[in-house]
Amino acid sequence: MDAERRLRPEDVVELNPNYHFRWEEPQEAHVLLYPEGIVKLNETAASILERCTDGRSIASVAADLSRQYDEANLSLDVLKFLEVAHAKGWVRIKS
Amino acid sequence: MPKAGSGLSLDGLGMPLWLVIELTYKCPLKCPWCSNPVDFDRYRNELSTKEWKKVLQAGRRLGSVQLGFTGGEPMLRNDLEELVEEADRLGYYTNLITSGVGLNPVRLRALKKAGLKQIQLSIQACDQELNEKLVGLDVFAHKIAIARTIKAEGFPMVLNVPVSRYNIDQTEALIELAADLGVEYLELANLQYYNWALLNRAELLPTREQLARSEAQVKAARERLGKRLTIYFVVPDYYDNRPKACMNGWGAIHLTIAPDGTALPCQEARLIKGIEFPNVREHGLDWIWRESPAFNQFRGDGWMKEPCRSCDEREKDFGGCRCQAFLLTGDASNTDPVCAESPHRHVIDELIGCAQKRDEARAGRLVMRQRGLGPRTGVKAD
User: What is the pLDDT of residue B262?
Assistant: First the structure.
């Protein structure tokens, strides 16, 4: 398995099944819950994670977000964030 | 409490994100570093199922989201499954913190069905002999068997090792054991010295050399194992020169409810004398968290003295641990003496010095957890 390699735009990622990703009303934020831990996500991180764990490629999500936020090209930012999420074990490459 | 110091800082917007409920102080094991009060048997009036459910409901309304079921040994409560089910219904992420004693495949499946998300199982050594010496009971084989069942049932799992002079040299073997069991997380939690651990500190504190060797082995294993196994390494804070960001600050994100309903900012806080901690039987949890004098005593930085008051790291470490300041300097509002800037740092240095010079041949014996000891004295109370 190639779990430790860098992510590529054509990759599809999925949430690590040991992580729960959800909206937490009192915090007015999305959170990741996992064994003995919690991460609060900002709006951008949450929208990337929400779309990227939906079975679509990183490139397709980045194109979507670029349109939505009216930015020329967000693919580098999306990839950069997912690299961090991947390194932290929040997401993994879908095989 | 150890873990808060090692995690990342988290702003809970003033809510107790972490709720820890100590269902009982009873436990079949006799660990000589137990975090329960030395006079734990004085507190026998455990909350009922109904009262715990009220605590869970009130906690969720206050914004709690991570929930730890602990003790004592929480498996001794036969309403555990019912409480887990209620917690899951309320939307908590539920963690069970257990020695594994009392856990069997039937209860494990019932807990899974009730919605339990994660199990933290403790193990004290990677062989039967040392494990039995450290916990006072022959439970090693059971722990290994139940660890495998936990994994077979599909729970994510933290293998927690309370680390002392006695088992720190097994670091490599413990890592191999964790990898072999297929757990996601190994927590090598060097003891922090409160309650029973404090009573046995001279026996338990590892030497600087032991610690350095263990840390190097963890580093090598992290590189070798990568994402297969996440290893948390909690240092014994005496060997640090900056204090731990204990509990992410007093009354910031942590709320512990003791078996008798006493609400505490951390599991050890009732060792600080002179603070009256509120009880959920007498007050609403909302008032306790937001208004009670106990929870406001060391909130923010208004209470700080020098050198904390003018230190630019005060928002990073919150002055360290209030319990440790009380235990080692006599005043809970002093800087944690672990800090190199503390005027009491010499106390820590002397303790470390003693640990290096310990004569193995004359080593004393461990005071195992037992009933009938008075608070922090090691002498019969009555």
Answer: 98
Average pLDDT value for residue range B270-278:
96
Residue B380: pLDDT above 60?
A: no
Q: What is the pLDDT of residue A77?
A: 87
Single-letter code of the amino acid located at B300: G
pLDDT in tens, B148-202: 999 999 999 999 999 999 999 999 999 999 999 999 999 999 999 999 999 999 9
Q: Minimal Cα–Cα distance from A67 to chain B, Å?
A: 32
Q: CB contact, 8 Å: B66 with chain A?
A: yes
**How many Cα atoms sit within 13 Å of B228 on the Cβ side?**
15
Residues in A touching B120 (Cβ below 8 Å): 35-36
Nearest-CA distance from B29 to chain A in Å? Answer: 23
Q: Is the pLDDT of residue B8 over 90?
A: no
Query: Tell me, what DSSP letter sits at residue A6?
Result: P
**Distance, CA of B224 to CA of B246 (rounded, Å):** 31
How far is it, in rounded angstroms, from Cα B145 to Cα B165? 26
User: Hunting for tokens 């800037």 — which residue is that?
Assistant: B341
Query: For B190, what's the count of Cα atoms within 13 Å in the CB-facing half-sphere?
Result: 25
Cβ within 8 Å, pair B3-A35: no
